[in-house]
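ligand=pyridoxal-5'-phosphate
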Amino acid sequence: MSRAHNFSAGPAVLPVSVLEELKEVLVEFGDTRQGLMELSHRSPAFDAVIQSAETRLRSLMGIPDDYTVLLLQGGASLQFYMCPLNLTGSNDSIDFLDTGTWSSKAVKEAKRAANAANIWSGKEDTYRRVPKTGEIATRDGSTYLHYTTNNTIYGTQFHDLPTSAGRHLVADLSSDICSRPFPVEQHDVIFAGAQKNLGPSGVTAVILSPWAVDRSRNVGSQRPGGLPSMLDYGLMADKKSMFNTPNTFGIFALDRVLAWLEGKGGVAGMAQENIEKANLLYGELDRSEFWQPHAATDSRSQMNVTWRISNRDLEAVFLQEAAANGLNALKGHRSVGGIRASTYNACPKASVAALVSFMQQFEAQRG
Ligand SMILES: *Cc1c(COP(=O)(O)O)cnc(C)c1O
């Protein structure tokens, strides 16, 4: 079997070496004489796995020692509600930067817990760009600012991160976690579904500052009966992500992806490669009027590259021929249309090079 070039937005391509390792452990894991998925989450063997995953994530991302790292379930989508539930009371307000579909979904959930509102929106500009620092005016007394570092669907990314202006910062890193250095210490909550840059779906990395954990305990103590157990950051921290059965297979896979990332020179080494991939692809998009890149130049994502073909009629043909040439999952999200190439950490530079050469050939024939 020859593997196609996979540009899926998520679940996304994984390193082949990791897939091979996963195959190995299904039937026999280490010297346990049983498969990884058959192992108790309370066993010493699994304890070593989850500790290793946490240690690697801490070291790769430079997470301060007094921060809490959780590996939960429910995806980033559950964090859209869990985060405001733990950090705010119903009289508190939360500011959002509306940079696309995922931030819109986040504000919708937050409204169930607090006074949540967008203080900036890119909607009228079809989410082509993210705001500059000077455009962000937080509301008086708001508790925190929520933003999405990389907008998976529209293909934009913050390059100058918003400053907090005295607010706590919450960031959804689902589609660019560990793709570049990131100042964890300036944030109070960071979360990311694993299925784009960290492993398979079903695991969510949640990183909490000491303030966020304390705040969760205070909010919980003011509610009759406390917070619902499965939605309680304080409880999840006390139980080290094992209040109930975690996704043991997913956590093992995440540990292996992080080990692979260490071999790539960590987040800094990976960032270099991601920049090279992005430059290759944007270079082609800028070369000819045949292509119309969606994102504004200074907001371009290094993870999800989105574009249209000037002659819209050619888009379906492009996708069809690309697939026939082993270039998979290039269809843009229905809200943007056109073409999207997701080039996460595990997408090899060779895949991007293959895509670019296909694009040049396609343009030569149809342009
Ligand atoms: C994919 C994605 C989500 C949704 O993640 P789930 O794990 O499916 O809930 C949220 N935010 C961003 C930025 C994403 O890319």
